[in-house]
Amino acid sequence: MRLLFIHAEDFWFQVREKAIENPEPLTPELERGSAKNALVVFTSVEEGDNEDPGYMNYVADQILDVLNRVKAETLVLYPYAHLSPNLARPTRAMAILNALYNTLKAKSPVPVMRAPFGYYKAFDIKCYGHPLSELSKSLTPSMATTTATAAQPQAPRDLYVILTPNGEEYEASKYQFREGEDDLRALVEKEVFKRELEGGGEPRYLDYCRKFGFEWEPMSDTGHMRYGPAATLMMELVEDYAWKLANELGIPVFKIRGTNMFRRGERAIDEHARLFNERMYTIEGDRDELIMRYAACFQQFAMIRNWVLSYRDLPLGMLEIADSYRYEQPGETVLCFRLRRFYMPDLHIFTRDLSNAMELALRLHEIIFREIRRLGRDYVSLYNVTRQFYNEHRDYLVELARREGKPILVRIMPEQKYYWVLNVEFHIVDELRRPREIATFQFDVGNAQRFGIKYRDENGEVKYPVIIHTAILGSVERYIYALLDTAAIMESRKEVPRLPTWIAPVQVRIIPIGREHLDLANKVASELEGRMIRVDIDDRFDETLSRRIRDAETFWVPYIVVVGDREAKTGILSVRVRGLGKTLEVGVEELIGRIEEEIKGYPRRPLTMPKYLSMRPAMM
Predict the structure, then answer these.
(1) Nearest 5°: CA angle at 213, between 207 and 214?
(2) How many CA atoms lie within 13 Å of 201's alpha carbon, on the beta-carbon side?
(3) CB 289 within 8 A of CB 282
(4) Which residues contact 315 (CB under 8 A, 6 or more apart)?
(5) 3-state SS class at 400
(6) What phi and psi values does residue 7 have, to the nearest 5 degrees?
(7) Average pLDDT over residues 22-47
(8) pLDDT higher for 485 or 153?
(9) Over 60: is that where the pLDDT of 149 sits?
(10) DSSP three-state, residue 537
(11) How far apart are CA 27 and CA 142, in angstroms?
């Protein structure tokens, strides 16, 4: 980075026209500006510069050192491409300048202003002319040494406490765990002591993933999955269910779609993305560097900021099934759990204020716990909060613990490091006794203003909503992981592992004993299909009946119906029910009634593969 310092008695600038195709958006304060007794820092961002906080702090300290020496009353950051022949790409330079500007604002003892990036500008400057009034520096990331970083004051450490439903508070590291609090113990071990109580070995759910077609894609990057026909169907059902649950909140919800890549250099994008800097996928576009989104925030915020909102419209929700990208380390990727590309049913709820958000989150919290308990599991919760939120709303956290019916772990942060004041992680403890985050919600108090999302209150005044970020079920893959891990725990207890009937890829398999029974199989299948029940027919008559039954059981089909001469004569079906341990003798309508009761309230979709097994390749 090249810096030219001018200590100016007077400075003025005015935007004239675009210098690049996609300059940053203009605001009134960026279009023109003036200052007296100002240190003007003409800045060129070079190839090799980056937004690392250590480097930004180092550059800011170099600038502030000059500021203190010349005793200027204002600091002006002015993009100036003419200081270097080795310039960074425009989008990269814009992002780094925004990061530097924010760092200076946080550290400077005087007001900081800046000129916009990507424009030709007229300016007037009157230099004081003293020995320090004209200086220059050339800085690189390697100059931001460990010594300089160590000189920065150490931030206060986070505090972990345990809150009980009765409002008692304990230091987490000294908490005496009671009977039935093994899951809480596992979470404290992981979050407070940074270790996991692990049973060892390969988790059983991985075999189940392969059974249903959830696999790594070997011809792609690390952490990218492929989804076979059964896996695809399961994914689509979870996506449908996430939409249904969003609409149970009792507010208007809008489903959208958008792009998965966003331009660097957009100020709001860069500021929001900085927290994920080391985990972001970036690609080179025709002219700009692009960020692959890590959630649906960018698209939803970019869309809703163009809506005209009043207090009467809020709260409202916006949901997208967002393909999301996070550059996880190769050794950290886990099938169906920690991925570089995954699908998130990302719901953002725009509320009038923090009080409105807290009220609505009680309903959200209820649904989140109801859904995990429907699987026979329960969450153990980590509440990340700012110190101010904890001091002002401790009773709210106690109420949430009361609703959960058990103690919660609270991480109290000494300052607001992020855009949220509360960020809840809901964990299951898996087959190997490892806490695994599934669902979440956050109270975001920063991004509405950052992205220009506004509404008018009862008095016509412009306000910025508080935004709840939530994934009620977690990412699609993580919810399926929870289902399969539940099956693994069932198997460890000597129970028959199974999926809930609503998400089983095939809900009923009909096995005609001979070719002469195929018409009856088709007739029964048609009645089931007419009620949106997924059914297939094993017409592989070259296979034995026992082999075909075994294959259905291996695929965890909840209901296996064998039809032969007796069924044709009586109209009564012999039905094997997974996990029941006996065969039912029922009519078609009774079978339909039983299945419909199990899948009531859940989404329905047709098969994603041919109905007849004879039409499927042997590898499926």
Answers:
(1) 70
(2) 9
(3) yes
(4) 251, 349, 350, 351, 352, 356, 357, 360
(5) helix
(6) -85, 110
(7) 91
(8) 485
(9) no
(10) strand
(11) 35
Strand-pair partners of 562 = 511, 574
In the DSSP assignment, the letter for residue 238 is H
Model pLDDT, residue 333? 92
3-state secondary structure of 529: helix
Selected from 3.60.10.10, 3.40.50.1240, 1.10.260.40, 3.30.930.10, the CATH number assigned to the domain covering 159-208+252-257+293-326+342-484 reads: 3.30.930.10
From start to end of 377-478, where are the E strands?
380-386, 408-413, 420-429, 435-444, 455-456, 462-463, 466-471
pLDDT tens-digit map of 8-20: 999 999 999 999 8
Amino acid symbol at 49:
D
- Distance between CA atoms of residues 252 and 315, nearest Å: 8
Give CA separation, 475 vs 74, 345, 439, 440, 467, in Å: 47, 6, 8, 10, 19
Kindly report the pTM of this predicted structure: 0.81
Contact 392, 385 (CB under 8 A): no
Name beta bridge partners: 467.
350, 444
Cβ–Cβ under 8 Å, residues 500 and 375 = yes
Backbone region of residue 110 per phi and psi (left: phi > 0; alpha: psi in -120 to 50; beta: other values)? beta
Superfamily of domain 501-615: Anticodon-binding domain (3.40.50.800)
Q: Is 522 helix (H, G, I), strand (E, B) or coil?
A: helix
Count of positions (residues) in the chain: 620
User: What pLDDT was estimated at residue 141?
Assistant: 86
Give 620's pLDDT tier (boundaries 50, 70, 90).
Answer: low
Look at 153-157, 387-391, 522-526 and tell me which has the smallest mean pLDDT. 153-157
The total of other beta-carbon atoms located within 10 Å of residue 606's CB is 11
Question: Phi and psi at residue 193, in whole multiples of 5°?
Answer: -95, -5
| Average pLDDT score, the chain | 92
Domain at 2-150, CATH class: alpha beta
- Structure-block tokens of residue 535: 């059914």
For residue 19, the SS3 value is coil
> Among 305-314, 416-425, 511-520, where is mean pLDDT lowest?
416-425
Q: Alpha-carbon torsion 379, 385, 389, 395, what sign?
A: positive
The CA distance from 11 to 315, in Å, is 45
Residue 481 CB partners (closer than 8 Å, separation 6+): 205, 336, 337, 436, 438
Same fold, 2-150 and 159-208+252-257+293-326+342-484: no
Checking if the pLDDT of 527 tops 90, the result is yes
Q: What is the pLDDT of residue 277?
A: 60
Q: Where are the domains of the chain?
A: 2-150, 159-208+252-257+293-326+342-484, 501-615
Write down the pLDDT at residue 150: 47
Per-residue pLDDT tens over the stretch 218-265: 999 999 999 999 999 999 999 999 999 999 999 999 999 999 999 877
CA distance 196 to 261: 35
